[in-house]
Amino acid sequence: MSAASGFSAAARRLLSLLADGGFHSGETIAASAGCSRTGVWKRIEELRALGVEVHAVPGMGYRLAHPLELLDGEVIAGALTGTAAEAIGLIEVHEQLDSTNDQLMRRAAEGAPAGTVCLAERQSAGRGRIGRTWVSPLSGNVYLSLLWRFGRAGFSGLSLAVGVAVVRALRAQGIGDAALKWPNDILWSRRKLGGILIEVRGEANDQYAVVIGIGLNVNLPDSHAVAIDQDWIDLARIPGGAAVSRNRLIAGMLNELAPLLTDYETTGLAPYLEEWRGYHGFEGAQASVQQGDWVWTGRIVGVSAEGLLLLACEDGPVREFASGDVRVRPL
Question: Which of 28, 138, 141, 326 has the most other CB atoms within 10 Å of its CB?
């Protein structure tokens, strides 16, 4: 496990101390940190500048607005089983990055092996599909990227199969109504819980470095959510979701992903397609698909064996889409 610079080591220690959500007096914090009360205040302000909600109550001390769990690569590695325990190598845990996908693409260019994992407590330039910004409060979400390598065209339809793996992991943690929207949205009750972003880099000998990025909302403060332009939800707002451990959930996703990726060049999407369809809640829905300046409207009639969206367009034909921004009309 490695950690990149993001905020000071002193602020990290303070965050670890406050993570239990209880009150801690200024005197206790100062003694633990070996600093003055003024130094404590500076570190509190550093956390607040990073978007951490820290409450100060006279006579009681400081506490976080809610308890949080810091990422721990050793805990995650210890929870890996089967294929994942063999295939997952280095687990990098960063305090802050531009984006875990970008970091792993850089690591791939340096020769990082398949199975390298990159995690971050916070992203300064996280993004979703079509260049959308991914809202990134400190320690509030899951930002996970996994590096794998494939031969030419060995990863067709991969985002749908990855979606199945994520839903399996969520359901194993008690999030029973987790669902999917083509091509890579993770939903709960038709609200966006997370997303998948797959990026590809060509290498020598017809090999491709594929970075699989997964973002999930875990505890998203309302103050951060004003920038989101669609219906959303986080685990904290889902019954039973507040008790889900980020480290345990990440390990669960890696346990699902590793065997899938190990066999994917041989199996392709086929073993996951019917399960994906079962998780897809928009069969028969009226929708629009936008690609650049072009917009098609019609009815979703499924996905093809290759994972292409099938839209029965209002102008007659059934069109196939490999990509596009899908907007489903309200029922």
Answer: 141
